[in-house]
Amino acid sequence: MITSIRTNHLVVISDLHLGNPFSQAKKQAIPFLRWAALQGFDICINGDGLEIAQASFTKIAFDAPELFRALSDIRRQGREIYYVTGNHDIALEHFLEDWGMMKVSPFLNVESNGTRIRIEHGHIYDPFFVKHPVLYEISTRVAGLFLKIHPSLYRLWIGFERLKSRFRARKTGILGEHPSFRESALELSRRGFDAVIFGHTHHPGTNDLENGSKYYNPGSWMLKPHYVVIDNGQVSMKQWKGLRTS
Questions:
Q1: Which of 7, 27, 94, 109 has the smallest set of CB atoms within 10 Å of its CB?
Q2: Would you place residue 246 in the very low, low, confident or very high pLDDT band (cuts 50, 70, 90)?
Q3: Distance from C-alpha of 218 to C-alpha of 123, rounded to nearest angstrom
Q4: How far is CA 199 from CA 46, 61, 79, 93, in A?
């Protein structure tokens, strides 16, 4: 199992949820991953790339093979592929080994040209997930049923979380997130990391931490496709707008 790596060129995406009835992420993620590999970047999928918690087997069987073919092609080009497990694909923790196509890990400590970056999905910092795991699992499965009825309901939920965040007493952190995520990123940065990258919340954004470090979350590719770039120790977040045709 690999948890520490050195790379000067890495892109990080999160929360594709392939197999979820709401997810159309592969339409943009696969061209993006092929483009990133051609630019010389290694790849990190930071959790919930596959939707095991809310999936139908039929939908996973339809979505996943095309992604795996793309990843296999990228690996043959000499690029490294890392997969950090999340809460919706937690079953993959049984395979914390080098698959040949990708390396599966619970987290990654990245060193890039003297910069130290921590990458993990972040679900263990979700108060609901930690304090009420059984209720969290039940609500996840119920939410999956609602998505099958009308997938657009998810956008309403994301909007509600952003609205709730605006009225929260502690308004630090990325809009829509619980303050615990920023607090956890700050605690990790105190262990010597210059940047911390989570996923899980589906809310993209960046946030400066008091000690000069920075917290990034690329959100979910089920909504707007963002990605974090690590380029020779420089960390930034961008939005993928597709390949230009001209």
A1: 94
A2: very low
A3: 14
A4: 6, 24, 22, 17
Radius of gyration of the chain (CA): 17
Q: Which two tokens stand for residue 31?
A: 């061209």
Given CA atoms 133, 137, 140, 146 in this order, what sign does their dihedral have? negative
Please answer whether residues 182 and 206 qualify as being in contact, where contact means their C-beta atoms are separated by less than 8 angstroms: no
What's the CATH fold of domain 4-239?
Purple Acid Phosphatase; chain A, domain 2 (3.60.21)
Residue type, 43: I
The whole-angstrom separation of Cα 155 and Cα 138 is 20
> Tell me: the pLDDT tens digits for 30-53?
999 999 999 999 999 999 888 776
Please give the model's pTM, rounded to 2 decimal places. Answer: 0.87
